[in-house]
């Protein structure tokens, strides 16, 4: 199976599902990496799963999502809640 036949199968499946967005097999790699990160998978594990030698390459596939921002806010908020500032 070559790349163009996989892309063709994806396009047919998208049309059948009524999806009108331009999505490629490469787009799915970005989604895969981003969803793994959102689920808490270590970035080095994602790097290995993606088959990248360089962590920089893996970083290009990771996208900050609303969930990622919200999760970070909650972590920072819970961490900072334990701190108090004493002016004395």
Characterise this structure.
The chain has one domain. The chain is built from five helices and no strands. It has 88 residues and is mainly alpha-helical. Helices cover 68% and strands 0% of the residues. The protein starts with a helix and ends in a 7-residue tail after the last helix.
Overall geometric form: elongated
Instruction: State the major sheet.
Output: none
Give the rounded overall mean pLDDT: 90
Unreliably modeled segments: none
- Strand-and-helix sequence, N→C? HHHHH
The domain tally reads 1
Q: How many β-strands, per DSSP?
A: 0
Distance between the termini: 71 Å
Q: What Rg, in angstroms, do the CA atoms define?
A: 19 Å
Question: Into which percentage range does the β-strand content fall?
Answer: under 5%
Query: Which structural class do you get from the secondary structure elements?
Result: mainly alpha
Share of helix, binned: 55-70%
Number of helices: 5
Relevant terms:
single chain; 88 residues; mainly alpha
Helices, strands, pairings?
Blueprint: H1 3-17, H2 25-38, H3 43-50, H4 55-61, H5 66-81
Summarize the structure.
This protein is mainly α. It is built from five helices and no strands.
């Amino acid at each position: 199976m070559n790349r163009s036949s996989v892309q063709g199968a994806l396009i047919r499946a998208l049309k059948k599902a009524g999806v009108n967005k331009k999505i490629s097999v490469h787009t799915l790699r970005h989604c895969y990496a981003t969803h793994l990160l959102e689920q808490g998978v270590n970035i080095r594990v994602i790097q290995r799963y993606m088959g990248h030698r360089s962590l920089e390459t893996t970083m290009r596939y990771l996208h900050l999502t609303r969930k990622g921002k919200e999760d970070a806010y909650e972590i920072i908020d819970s961490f900072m809640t334990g701190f108090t500032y004493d002016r004395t």
